[in-house]
């Protein structure tokens, strides 16, 4: 079988969760990073003309979360049983909702700052409270084992921290979870060796 090819731009963005899952599971993959200057000419060859896309056995799989869920199932990270799978999905969706609220494309820098401030002042506390409640006294967000929801928390935390450093400082259990995820075998190596990008 051909190794997976994950095509995206040179950033963490919407591909990083899948890169985490593949690295954690020790599944070899080609981390294909497209240069923006080359993108217009190759864009029409991808589903919906967007990235990330995973090449699987000659076929193309699009949508970042569909790709990550597909890989999470293979890696045993989807959650154990129907309910825990759905709970992991719900956490991933909740984190993703927050990333979609970030005004990435706002060109007015003052307005962008105001929108980001509003997001972190109003929505982040709700999100963090929700995650802590989901986690309870356990070590992981869902059940008694690591799932892709824990990995996505680490991915999102890294990006959110660029926008609002220290935003989760008062949430000690979620901070401890970051350490736990970052020390997972396979993932620690990825975190040390991955290309350094702002987002
Ligand atoms: N819902 C899609 C969104 C994909 C998306 O917006 N991709 C952006 C990069 S993050 C893209 O391909 N931009 C280039 C373009 O649209 O030409 C996903 O999660 O994969």
Automatic annotation (TrEMBL):
Entry EC no(s): 2.5.1.18
Residue ranges of every copy of the GST C-terminal domain listed in the record: 81-199
InterPro entries listed in its UniProt record: Glutathione-S-Trfase_C-like, Glutathione-S-Trfase_C_sf, Glutathione_S-Trfase, Glutathione_S-Trfase_N, GST_C, GST_superfamily, Thioredoxin-like_sf
Transmembrane segments: none
One GO term (biological process): glutathione metabolic process
Keyword check for Iron: no
Pfam families cross-referenced by the UniProt entry: GST_C_3, GST_N
SUPFAM superfamilies from the UniProt entry: GST C-terminal domain-like, Thioredoxin-like
MF-aspect GO terms: glutathione transferase activity
Catalysed conversion reaction: RX + glutathione = an S-substituted glutathione + a halide anion + H(+)
Protein name as catalogued: glutathione transferase
Native source organism of the sequence: Megalops atlanticus (Tarpon)
């Amino acid at each position: 079988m051909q190794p997976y090819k994950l095509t995206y731009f040179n950033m963490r963005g919407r591909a990083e969760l899948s890169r985490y899952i593949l690295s954690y599971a020790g599944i070899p993959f080609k981390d294909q990073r497209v240069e923006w200057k080359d993108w217009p000419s190759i864009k029409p060859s991808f589903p919906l003309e967007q990235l990330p896309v995973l090449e699987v056995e000659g076929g193309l799989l699009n949508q970042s979360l569909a790709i990550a869920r597909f890989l999470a199932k293979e890696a045993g990270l989807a959650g154990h049983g129907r309910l825990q799978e759905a709970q992991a999905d719900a956490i991933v969706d909740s984190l993703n909702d927050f990333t979609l609220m970030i005004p990435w494309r706002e060109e007015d820098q003052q307005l962008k700052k105001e929108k980001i401030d509003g997001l972190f002042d109003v929505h982040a506390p709700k999100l963090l409270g929700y995650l802590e409640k989901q986690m309870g006294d356990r070590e992981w967000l869902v059940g008694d084992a690591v799932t892709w929801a824990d990995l996505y928390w680490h991915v999102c935390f890294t990006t959110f921290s660029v926008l609002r450093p220290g935003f989760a400082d008062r949430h000690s259990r979620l901070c401890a979870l970051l350490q736990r995820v970052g020390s997972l075998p396979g993932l620690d190596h990825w975190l040390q060796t991955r290309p350094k990008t702002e987002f």
